[in-house]
Amino acid sequence: MSHTVQGLAYVTTDEQAEAARAGHQAAVEEQRASRPAVADPRPLQRDVLVMMLDAGLLRPEQCRAGREIAEMVYATTAGIIGNVVARYDERITGSDADDWPSHMRSAYVERFRPWSEWAKAEAVKGLTFRQITLGICADNLGCKQYGVRHGIHRMTALRKLQLSLFWYAEQARWIDPLPDADFAA
Q1: In the Cβ-directed half-sphere of 36, how many Cα atoms lie within 13 Å?
Q2: Element (H, E) at 67
Q3: What letter would DSSP give residue 127?
């Protein structure tokens, strides 16, 4: 290897170059060894509702209700920001209708809002059915995780989730109503 240093030719011998590479490689290996071990990446977590469905803890209609509840939560929380930003611009369509598709508007009015009002009124250990259901469906927490965070037993969280999703599915007419059902029990 030949370089010009201050106007004079400077030649690096092969031995010098090899020693420099070896020294660099040794420094890299030393740095790798001194770093803390990184845990293996966690695989993506499956949807909690699907895992409960597979385990036989939920009916398909309850799983559908949970997914729709999560969709409504995402739409309402994201929609607030979208509507505030949209106020500064002219509407492209010129209509004054909601930005939601019609199936989402009807799901919100006919199913989600009545369920939300009912679930806010039902409480167990200081937590409403709505809080439990949203924590599990929208935040994708398992019943055990939710129970640990909020100080209730996992079976209590599961039972209240089942009742809440059953009520939602029953109001949507996806499940036949139970005679004399008392959901607060």
Answers
A1: 2
A2: helix 60-86
A3: E
The answer to whether 69 and 47 have CB atoms below 8 angstroms apart is no
106-112-118 Cα angle (round to 5)? 140
Tokens coding 122: 């039902």
Q: What is the pTM of this model?
A: 0.65
Query: CA-CA distance, 46 to 157, in Å (whole number)?
Result: 19
Give the separation between CA 83 and CA 100, rounded to whole angstroms: 11
- Exposure string over 42-51, b if 16+ CB within 10 A, otherwise e: eeeeeebbee
**Exposed / middle / buried, residue 131 (Cβ in 10 Å: 0-12, 13-18, 19+):** middle
* pLDDT band, residue 185 (cuts 50/70/90): very low
